[in-house]
Design goal:
The complex is a heterodimer of chains A (about 300) and B (about 270). Helices cover about 35% and strands about 15% of the residues of chain A. With about 300 residues, chain A is an alpha/beta fold. Chain A is built from 7 helices and 10 strands. Chain A has a domain of about 180 residues: 3-Layer(aba) Sandwich (Rossmann fold), CATH 3.40.50. In chain A, the strands form 3 sheets. Chain A has a 5-stranded parallel beta sheet, sandwiched between helices. In chain A, strands 1-2 form a two-stranded antiparallel ribbon. In chain B, strands 1, 2, 3, 4, 5 and 6 form a 6-stranded mixed beta sheet that branches. The N and C termini of chain B lie far apart (about 65 Å). Classes of the chains: A alpha/beta (about 300), B alpha/beta (about 270). Chains A and B meet through helix 1, strand 4, helix 3, helix 4 and helix 7 of A and helix 1, strand 2, strand 4, helix 4 and helix 7 of B.
């Protein structure tokens, strides 16, 4: 039975990326989870509004030392927790043409998982993007898919739903049906057909610049610039597979440290040659008002 | 003698001594040599909250309910004659703090409507070519929302902090952008990309409207989604009416939501 694995019931995780309660992302994650639960899955849900989220400062300690990010304990928790499930469904809203910043903040921190990818078994993942209206969502599904692949591993399906008002999407039976179908596809680890005109791996619309025609050749379109899916070699690795990311880590990120250290003295001298530093402006918050600046944003209260 | 122009640099990176900071310093330095007054803001000094999507800024028009430094940033930028914005690339796109400001820009657009034409330059940093597809359009989106008129933009490749300072070709381009902002002079846009937001597109697609910024090569010059005029129209013609449409369906939505609320997956939280 598809709802079991190794003699136990499968566990599915839903992730609501919206910080707005009772919105369309929450509604569609619940619909997808409910469909899986009806078939016997155990289902849990994570709301990003319950997490302290912050911005990655690019220190790369997670890459060179391993063991997650000390500055972002809740994101470390989320990535580890998601990896313990048999499948993941993620839904994100769209603000200004793409997912909101908290989705990108998780992706930015996702580099902490790179050293662990070799030991992670890819799980099926589904991505749902919600946007107000078509044409204003170029980055929504591909970036939500990027997060789904980070949390799960293998994208089995993804779609974009259009609904401007909170939970309004529930009045659209076709979209509700697609969310149910996605929940079942994740449960059964079964890939859904891909819509025409989008990259079959990350769902970036073709017109956005993926599949640039190779200039002057008849070689046909080149690979997707976002996920590197190559239509002439569909079986090859794309960028977000564990194998590809582990190679990126081993062949690029780790050696770049040595290359940098070899040039460190030159870089230090170049800083000294720069023109004098401009005046550094900061908001005047009065005495004691500087508390909370910097990286740790508390999504639970909307404040730092 | 005309008054000296004032340029502001914004370092979006939270890493001290990184490539974004280095390039802003170089671009501002060139403008300062040519007579500008220059100041710099580090986003790591600011409290920046995530947009909650409540839309109170749109429907009540009194700014954002969050008490942080984002309104200060938008107001500060408005007082300058030109802007230089630098951002790093993490995992194929601009770092999340860039998107956080884009998400929060709605409140500013409602509070300070009207045209924006401040010359702005962007300096994007990525580790490696091919891993940076979304950094230019998204960084340029913030530049257009903050300043209004993009005059020049570059992407530099440098993996280690400050390493970009060893690449004289890139430093020269950063200086050119600093001077172009000071002189409000448009530099040629890149080839094979949308001339407004610099999204890379296939050659045959460039004749059609850009799916990101909405620039239409057949439409009026300089038109795109992030102009003050376009955004005002967006708010008037789309956001306000969508509220009425929603309120008309509210009871139906509530009934549908009540049905799904009966299904309660276990909510897991960090300990």
């Amino acid at each position: 039975m598809s709802a079991e694995v190794d003699g136990r019931r499968k566990r599915l995780l839903g992730v609501v990326a919206s910080l707005r309660r009772g919105g369309n992302s929450e509604a569609l994650v619940k619909v997808a989870l409910q469909a899986a639960a009806e078939r016997g899955a155990l289902v849990d849900i994570i709301h990003l509004e319950d997490l302290r989220l912050g911005f990655c400062d690019g220190c790369l300690a997670c890459v060179y030392k391993g063991d997650g990010c000390r500055k972002a304990p809740d994101i470390t928790w989320l990535l580890r927790t998601a990896a313990s499930y048999d499948g993941v469904v993620v839904a994100s809203p769209t603000y200004f043409l793409g997912p909101p910043a908290q989705v990108k903040a998780l992706i930015d921190h996702g580099v902490m998982e790179f050293p662990r990818l070799g030991t992670r078994r890819p799980k099926p993942a589904g991505a749902i993007a919600v946007a107000g209206r078509p044409g204003w969502d170029l980055l929504s599904l591909s970036v939500t898919s990027q997060l789904a692949m980070l949390l799960g591993g293998r994208l089995v399906g993804g779609f974009t739903a259009y609904a401007p008002g909170p939970a309004e999407v529930l009045l659209d039976p076709e979209t509700v049906g697609r969310a149910r179908e996605l929940g079942l596809a994740v449960l059964e680890d079964r890939s859904l057909p891909v819509e025409d005109g989008v990259c079959p791996v990350c769902r970036l619309p073709w017109d956005a610049g993926p599949l640039q025609a190779s200039s002057g050749s008849e070689a046909g379109p080149g690979p997707c610039p976002f996920c590197l899916y190559d239509p002439s070699r569909p079986e090859a690795d794309h960028r977000f597979t564990a194998v590809h990311l582990a190679r990126h880590l081993a062949e690029w990120m780790v050696p770049s440290r040595e290359r940098f250290l070899a040039r460190r003295e030159q870089v230090r001298k170049a800083w000294e040659r720069l023109p004098p530093a401009p005046r550094r402006l900061r908001p005047d918050r009065g005495p004691g008002g500087d508390e909370g600046r910097g990286r740790e944003t508390d999504a639970r209260s909307g404040r730092q | 003698m005309p008054e000296r122009k004032r340029l502001l640099g914004i370092v979006a990176s939270h890493r001290a001594g990184g490539n974004s900071e280095a390039l802003v310093r170089v671009a501002l330095g060139a403008a300062a040599d040519a007579g500008a007054e220059t100041d710099i803001v580090y986003l790591s000094d600011l409290r920046v909250g995530f947009c909650r999507g409540c839309l109170r800024c749109v429907y009540k028009g009194q700014g954002c309910v969050q008490d942080d430094d984002v309104p200060w940033l938008f107001e500060t930028v408005a007082a300058y004659d030109g802007l230089i914005l630098a951002a790093p690339t993490y995992l194929l796109g601009a770092a999340a703090q860039v998107k956080a400001l884009i998400d929060r820009a709605v409140a500013d657009l409602v509070r300070r409507p009207g045209p924006r034409s401040k010359p702005t330059g962007t300096l994007c940093v990525a580790g490696l070519p091919g891993w940076d597809h979304f950094v230019r359009p998204v960084t340029n989106q913030l530049a257009l929302l903050l300043g209004g008129r993009l005059v020049g933009s570059l992407t530099a490749y440098a993996p280690g902090p400050g390493e970009v300072l060893l690449d004289e070709g890139v430093l020269q381009r950063a200086r050119d952008i600093g001077l172009a902002v000071l002189e409000d002079r448009l530099l040629p846009p890149p080839e094979g990309a949308c001339p407004v937001c610099h999204l890379k597109r296939p050659p045959e697609a460039l004749r059609t409207p850009c799916p990101f910024c909405g620039h239409d090569p057949a439409g009026p010059e300089g038109s795109h989604r992030f102009t003050g005029e376009s955004l005002a129209r967006f708010v008037e013609e789309w956001m306000y009416p969508s509220r009425e449409r929603f309120l008309a369906r509210r009871q139906e939505v509530e009934a549908a939501r009540a049905a799904i609320e009966e299904f309660r997956p276990r909510r897991v939280r960090p300990g």
